Input
Amino acid sequence: MIGGRVRCAVLLLTAVAAACSRTTGSRPPAEVVRVARREMPSEIVATGTVRPQVGAEVNVGPRISGVLRKLFVRVGDQVRPGEPLAELDHIDLDVAVREAETGLAEAEARLQLARSQLRRREALSREGLISPEELEGMRYAALLAATGVERTREQLDAARITRAYAEIAAPIGGTVTSITTREGETVAASFAVPTFVTIMDLTRLQVEAYVDEVDIGRIAVGQVARFTVDAFPQEQFEAMVSAVIPQAKMRDNVVNYTAILGISGGRR
Output
């Protein structure tokens, strides 16, 4: 019907022009245009979803088990990298750190005693008052004491690292999109790290467009795209094709391929 209307409109204009020419006896004015090669725009329409880019959404949780003592954020809060999110109960962890510090102090005292005894044995050995075997035994005792200091220092470092795990900080900046754990609840970190806070960087979003297999051959990286969202149906947002995933997916019994559109942030 649309084509019929267009054709009818063209015929009507021709008849009017012919009638005018017969009455006036002159040709209608014509515009001369130079022939030039131009690209004809072609559009591919597809549906898709807006998702965060890889690394723009992070599920945050503790690396150790414990009771959630304090939660510092709420859904919708803006956080910066390194900002505290939550804290686990750490009384037992503080005790472990103090025990390790005490053990290190004792090991260092044993090392000082062993070195002092070794110096005395070396002086006696130079005067020939002790046997070489006794001197070697004292040197071995001093070596064991030094090894004990290194071992207890590593134990202290491990206790401090475990204590630091009780404080959960934001790995990226963004918006808190969900919280699944409340204060006072116990979180268990076994084979998988539990998640109780999700952070998303809303400035790093992309569109996953599902393109029909008939049209996917016309999609190439670098092409300009536009898209609309349900929240702003009257606005168009600019994007660019950044990747085409070659793996096919079935959607509603139709073979589709996913084209990734990087959002440039502009509106039309």
Confidence is low (pLDDT under 50) at residues 1-24. The chain has three domains: 64-89+168-200, 92-164, 204-267.
